[in-house]
Amino acid sequence: MHIRWNRNWNKKGDFIYAILSESRKIDGKFRYTTIKYLGGISENHPCPYRRMRFWKTVEKKMSEVELSPEMLEKVIISLEKRIPKPSDDDLEKGTLYSLDTVNLKRR
């Protein structure tokens, strides 16, 4: 099993999705099977609050999948390479919402 990253573009920028998948060789070709959608996050504005929400979603989804402790550790390490877990210092220094991520409309 491994993590596959899908990318989607919208007005605010790139949005990436982490998908737990498995590869199998069928008729001499590799086929990927999606095991579980783990979560998504904006790649352009990875503020600590959004990373914290991403990791809470990942932890919830991973609890629904039966994995060996070794495989679970491998998946977590793979995710952390792309989206690091926010530290307590990051959360204290960062704001919950930054002005560029809030859509303010005038009436």
What does this structure look like?
The chain has one domain (2-93). It contains three helices and three strands. The protein is globular, with a radius of gyration of 16 Å. It has a three-stranded antiparallel β-sheet. The protein has helices at 48-63, 69-82, 88-93, and strands spanning 2-10, 13-26, 29-42. The protein starts with a strand and ends in a 14-residue tail after the last helix. Helices cover 34% and strands 35% of the residues. It is an alpha+beta fold.
Summary tags:
disordered C terminus, 3 helices, alpha+beta, 107 residues, single chain
Q: Strand count, sense and closure of the main sheet?
A: 3 strands, antiparallel
Structural class: alpha+beta
Q: Work out the radius of gyration.
A: 16 Å
Beta percentage is 25-35%
Helix share bin: 25-40%
Overall, the morphology is globular
Q: Span between N and C termini?
A: 50 Å
User: Which segments are poorly predicted (pLDDT under 50) over 5 or more consecutive residues?
Assistant: 96-107
Strands of the biggest beta sheet: in what spatial order? 1-2-3
Per DSSP, the total helix count is 3
Mean pLDDT: 81
Order of helices and strands: EEEHHH
Number of domains: 1
How many β strands by DSSP?
A: 3
